[in-house]
Amino acid sequence: MAQTEKKGGLLRKSSASKKPLKEKVVLMYDEIFTTEDPSKCNPRFWEELFLMKVNLEYLEGKLEVLDGEELMKIKDNINCLFQHCIQALGEEHPIRVVNALQTLCALIRGVHQKNKSTSGFDIINMLVGFDKAELCMKNLMESLDSLLCAEGSESLKSLCLKLLLCLVTVTDNISQNTILEYVMINSIFEAILQILSSPLSRREHGYDAVVLLALLVNYRKYESVNPYIVKLSIVDDEATLNGMGLVIAQALSEYNRQYKDKEEEHQTGFFSALTNMVGSMFIADADEKISVQTNEAILLALYEAVHLNRNFITVLAQSHPEMGLMTTPTSPVPMTPVTPLGTTPPSSDVISSAELPLDADVQTSNLLITFLKYSSIVMQDTKDEHRLHSGKLCLIILTCIAEDQYANAFLHDDNMNFRVNLHRMPMRHRKKAADKNLPCRPLVCAVLDLMVEFIVTHMMKEFPMDLYVRCIQIVHKLLCYQKKCRVRLHYTWRELWSALINLLKFLMSNETVLLAKHNIFTLALMVVNLFNMFITYGDTFLPTPSSYDELYYEIIRMHQNFDNLYSMVLRLSTNAGQWKEPASKVTHALVNIRAIINHFNPKIESYAAVNHISQLSEDQVLEVVRSNYDTLTLKLQDGLDQYERYSEQHKEAAFFKELVRSISINVRKNLAFNTLSQELLLKEFSTIS
Q1: DSSP 322-344
Q2: Which candidate, 114, 417, 674, 680, has a CA 20 to 30 Å from the CA of 546?
Q3: What three-state secondary structure class fits 263?
Q4: Using one digit for the tens of pLDDT, what is the confidence trace for 2-15?
Q5: Which helix (H) or strand (E) covers residue 10, if one does?
Q6: Comparing C-alpha atoms, which of 675, 685, 661, 669 is closest to residue 162?
Q7: For residues 308 and 335, what is the distance between their CA atoms, to the nearest angstrom?
Q8: Measured CA distances, 517 to 464, 509, 568, 649 (Å)
Q9: DSSP labels for 165-186?
Q10: pTM, 2 dp
């Protein structure tokens, strides 16, 4: 017997001896795509349509081949189809609801594809008609809200969220998607919160819910009052906020795990073996960048939660077992397409950490630690545009955290010590730190480590000036808190001082190249003022008096760099060029550093001469420093512990607009046909009651 094959809605005999037959649903679609009312000849047309398995590909394909004029001719039938879809959402039979949801996805995407150049109002008219738009969209949103909040099928909820994501992301710039006005008026915010607060719903749908919320928050956020922003900012329910935190932590942990797996595979793979065989000939290849797709969508959700909701700050420190050490079920995971921005959700089968028992042998973690590890990976390579955006967003999130009083309280809490294994960029002149040797310290130490790591590893021709400025600002804000609250942090401050001095050295060595693109004096001034902060207030927050002595030792030891910087800024500030004013600010900021160098250097030389020592040891220099503090005169500098608070609308609007655009494009790509496949859904609803 000849095998029957199916393709594009056509049924045909493999022998191809007869004319291809069309599926019944395809024939019904063809009737809709005529100017006649399909229910005229068949009063049960719409009822029968939603019992048929949807052919998404055919329906979208039909819309795609029509031009604008042809589409307008069948507008009444499109409106009718849209309205009957909405009516079907209220049906008791789940198969009708499933088919209606999928048909809506195809309709919305198909019509938008045809109307890219036209205004949103034309699209609303094409889908529902102006006269019925308000009522239809109200009914649609109410039906989706009911389905999301109901006790029923998880598959239906998943499809509802897919439809909403489809609705939100049909335009690249979501603020131009005027259909979202109806999503603003008929809010589904409470339904999203309900998903996040329930362990079962969160496991199944948490990722989609969080991404949907992040996108909705960004709809016309600077032009009008967005109810999702207002509502997110006042959420105070602990279960909901913790649920949101767990979804974000799970997605970031998944990224960290994938990176670690690739790193291990890379180290034990072909290149390692080859390098061992033939020496260092292939070292550049062996150190090639390990690439795992970044996840800007989930990072945006974390940013909005931290930035808008002060109650969410407490979630950052909620302890849970290390997610990377969790065992995951071996049940098969549905395949989803991988997108350039990694907006594919992590496996929904993974049990969220809050629902796991704590084990004394398992390293405790929290969302902040997971985020810091994620940041340490994406900030390694800023040459790639997506990673640059991810790195920038990580630093913006850390800026918000560094400004928050409560966040600083737990960052600096001596009773909250963690071992944070940050990823470090492979560099030839340093050995890889062993994970087991990491000490348990307050979380602020990991933040400072991350900043030091960034400073040390990004001194290159394509200099990421913006990221450096943010990095130094974060360090400054943390120091301001320590000074204000007199927190004496036991940290290896020398590593930070050394990194900052090397940064100044780099700026001077590459003065000509960098000045062609950047105002390097802004950054130099910030670095010098960090040293001024230590000099002026270090006695209030450095852990011991000897730490303060070591600061002076480092300044004296590296005095040549400060002397060279002074010569450079003096030269430029005495000229009438464009850098006169910014260079002169650095000149004035160097006054105390120069005073220290000019005061102690003669004393050290005198000590060496009297004691006939050609080269003094560190202890001998420190002895000279300690015995000559009394005669040192420093100027009091104002405003060192002041800073401008972060403001998104005034400074970052363009960045977020572009970021949300790229996320929207990639979420849309991720809603491919196989993610809307009916196979699993129809298994669940195999019988109609």
Answers
A1: -GGG-----S--------TT--S
A2: 417
A3: helix
A4: 444 444 555 544 44
A5: strand 10-13
A6: 675
A7: 34
A8: 11, 15, 18, 25
A9: HHHHHSSSSGGG-TTHHHHHHS
A10: 0.87
